[in-house]
Amino acid sequence: MTGPTPVEPVEERLADRLSARHKDAPPSWDVRVLRQLGHLDRAAYRAVADLSTPGLDRPLRQVSKFANFSKPWFLIAAALALFGGRRGRRAAVTGAAAIGLTSLVVNQPMKLAGRRGRPNRTGMGVPENRWVRMPTSTSFPSGHSASAAAFAVAVGDVLPQLNMPLRLAATVIAFSRVYTGVHYPGDVVVGAAVGALLGRATSKGARWLRPTSFESPGGA
């Protein structure tokens, strides 16, 4: 049995819901803002699709595929656990916990609530050379971007020297999801914001549980 048909874009659907409450009144400011965000989201998606950067097609396609199931982050966590000493192990556990929490929040309630359909890559002009397999889940928010941001923030809080490299890697993965056409920019921005918040919450929780492991020297 199939669920409800995903609706696109999510901003327009929210605006429709708000408008339905006041059918005879002119659009309120929040409805106007939501509709404008929907237009901007699609315009930004088309702008990325129109980029003439064939040299990036293969690398970003490979990056996007490699990021499935948070593989890069779990590999980094494994390296930290093996070679990073006590602080590295703490960072690995914190990062993995952040991914788990973020996946639970984003891939369940948020995607079910958003119900945004995936972009029409053909209709919006994304070159086929960029394409990766289109996920079957709903589009809003981006799970890849959320997990990447959560891991980068959580591990960066434990090991500040890895803060910038991890955030740069997370940004590349987030952009690759728009570049390959499987997400709108709004999906990525919201996913990254939620992931960053949950990553920070995870690191603070870990600090509260075992504060000495954050204060002691050593590690990667």
Brief digest:
With 220 residues, this protein is mainly α. Helices cover 69% and strands 0% of the residues.
| Order of helical and strand elements | HHHHHHHHH
Shape: globular
What is the number of helices? 9
Question: Between the first and last Cα atoms, what is the distance in angstroms?
Answer: 50 Å
Strand content is under 5%
Q: How many beta-strand segments?
A: 0
Mean pLDDT: 87
- How does the helix and strand content classify structurally? mainly alpha
Structural commentary:
The chain is globular. It contains nine helices and no strands. It starts with 9 loop residues before the first helix and ends in a 5-residue tail after the last helix. The protein is mainly α and 220 residues long. The chain has one domain (54-215): Up-down Bundle (Vanadium-containing Chloroperoxidase, domain 1), CATH 1.20.144. The chain has helices at 10-21, 29-49, 54-66, 71-83, 85-114, 143-158, 163-179, 185-209, 212-215. Helix 4 (71-83) runs antiparallel to helix 5 (85-114), helix 5 (85-114) crosses helix 8 (185-209) and helix 6 (143-158) runs antiparallel to helix 7 (163-179).
